[in-house]
Amino acid sequence: MKIGIIGAGFVGRAIAKLAIRSGHQVMLSNSRGPQTLFSLGPMIGCETGTATDAARFGDMVIIAVPLTAIGQLPKEPLQGKQVIDAVNYYPDRDGIVEVLEARQTTTSELLASYLPAAKITKAFNAIPMTQLESDGLPSGSPERRALPLAGDDAQGKDIASSLYEAFGFDALDAGPLAEGWRFERGMPAYCVRMTKDQLKTALNSAERR
């Protein structure tokens, strides 16, 4: 599969490395242009380009940018695409977003409002990237870590689940995209090592105050 990644920070780079090891083709991009990724491409074996290039390149596209940057995403080439949302909300970095503070929407639904023609699945936001690279275990391992996902598109969920599996993690479907709040920042399931049963309990115990 061709995977375009918009955002070349810790999240984008970690996913790119693991995707390439799993046999996928990857293009990384950032807001500053491919010339700023000159050494990264040969280092991890990916292609580099602009955000628009990555959006057009990918059969599936991963959004791994700060929340403040989602308004600058290229809309046209993402129309109809499977998009994985790995964005998190950090007020200290992103400023106060009132609709998120009031729990009137979720980060993924906010992204969906900017990309209404994309098929968005929330995944890869509830684990530190160093642990994404180090914690993977073979299928069936009793202590295998589970990771949550949410979305409204069955194919998008299948893609996210297959990437989790390929990277060494069990996938746990938390429901539709609107339920993504259950593993946002500050929730019991956020960035905590858990098995599938433990994660299910954590998602169910989340309270939306």
Q: How helical, in percent, are the residues?
A: 25-40%
Query: What Rg is obtained from the alpha carbons, in whole angstroms?
Result: 16 Å
Q: Globular, elongated, flat, extended or rod-shaped: what is the shape?
A: globular
Mean of residue pLDDT values = 95
Per CATH, which architecture?
A: 3-Layer(aba) Sandwich
- What's the CATH H-level homologous superfamily? NAD(P)-binding Rossmann-like Domain
Count helical runs. Answer: 9
Low-confidence stretches: none
Strand order, sheet with most strands: 3-2-1-4-5-6-7-8
Q: CATH first level: which class?
A: Alpha Beta
Order of helices and strands: EHEHEHEEHHHEHEHEH
Whole-number count of domains = 1
Distance between the termini: 39 Å
Biggest β-sheet description: 8 strands, mixed
Provide the structure class.
alpha/beta
CATH topology: Rossmann fold
Structure summary, number of beta strands: 8
> What amount of the residues lies in strands?
15-25%
